[in-house]
Design brief:
Length: 154
């Protein structure tokens, strides 16, 4: 089974239509938020990438920013789970780089976009960057207990 087939199969189990022209009703878009809230940032990244690669509208940068934010949280989660690992222990700097890219790509959107509060999301991303920088990359602000939850406002 290919990555695309696996993602399509997962999306079918979620509410929403994978082919909906209304973004907030699109199963891939909705799956991103569900997977994010399950702290499965890698899969959230993958599922949204599935529609980002097909997007030719202004939404391409929006999706790219959301994907980069999920990627940053992949780094935070890996670093939290394996802080002394040679590779995973050094993931805070790549996370900050991805946060900056996400913020840049999301900067033209909001306060709301496709039933999502982008302005509040950008503030949360900025807060994570500031916490990491204040700690000089020595403290990870993410934990499973304090992980941010995202909601669509349907």
């Amino acid at each position: 089974m290919t990555k695309g087939e696996r993602i399509s199969q997962m999306v079918e189990t979620l509410q929403g239509k994978s082919d909906s022209s209304i973004v907030a009703e699109n199963g891939f878009y909705r799956a991103y938020f569900q997977l994010w809230n399950e702290q499965d940032y890698y899969q959230a990244h993958d599922v949204l990438e599935h529609i980002w690669l097909e997007t030719t509208t202004d939404d391409a940068r929006y999706f790219k920013g959301l994907i980069q934010a999920a990627g940053a949280f992949v780094h935070l989660k890996k670093q939290f789970e394996h802080p002394t690992h040679p590779k995973h222990g050094r993931r805070l700097q790549p996370a900050v780089r991805l946060f900056h890219l996400a913020l840049k790509n999301l900067s033209n959107y909001g306060p709301m976009r496709h039933a999502f509060d982008v302005a509040t999301f950008r503030e949360m991303l900025t807060d994570y960057v500031e916490k990491i920088l204040r700690a000089d990359y020595q403290k990870n602000p993410w934990s499973p207990q304090s992980a941010p939850m995202l909601q669509l406002k349907m």
